[in-house]
Design a protein that fits this description.
This protein is α+β, with helices and mostly antiparallel strands. Helices cover 39% and strands 23% of the residues. The chain starts with a helix and ends with a helix.
Length: 160
């Protein structure tokens, strides 16, 4: 518990420093993690390092704003992938059966990942959903937002 509190405070401080810095030159490494999708296929954030930027999207089934964001993501997912941007839609803390039923009932076809014990959400200091994190190709956190940071992600995809 103390470890997660310390990590959360450090991550909060890092985001404050990024937001307060006019040049936003400070680069904070995104906490690495491994997560499984609904088919139990694992993915590790570090697998994308030096390959493509990643948008982490934390959400829940009970959140009405998340439902709207998921519908928007459903419409933009394929285009983002074509532009070289990976999106990891991570459900925060709900049972797999509930998430699978929700995804099926809403006809979502993109991959959905499960943070069933909220350890990833804790590492990113997620206190409310929906929330997005933009991670650049080098594995650094570049933006945290309450809505899909499309222009930021597209800019990251163009970076060398």
């Amino acid at each position: 518990m103390r470890k997660y509190l310390t990590q959360g405070l450090l991550l909060s401080l890092a985001f404050f420093l990024i937001a307060a810095s006019p040049a936003a030159e400070k680069k904070i490494p995104a906490p690495d993690f491994m997560v499984k999708d609904l088919d139990q296929i694992s993915v590790k954030l570090s697998e994308y390092k030096d390959k493509k930027p990643v948008i982490l999207f934390f959400w829940t089934t009970w959140c009405p704003y998340c439902q709207t964001a998921l519908k928007n993501l459903s419409r933009t997912q394929a285009d983002l992938e074509k532009e070289g941007i990976e999106v990891l839609a991570i459900n925060a803390g709900e049972p797999p059966s509930k998430v699978a039923r929700f995804v099926k009932n809403n006809g979502f076809t993109f991959r959905v990942f499960l943070d069933f014990d909220s350890s990833i959400s804790d590492a990113y200091n997620v206190y409310g959903v929906p929330v997005y994190f933009a991670v650049d190709k080098k594995g650094f956190l570049r933006k945290m937002a309450g809505s899909l940071p499309l222009e930021e992600a597209r800019g990251l995809a163009r970076e060398k």
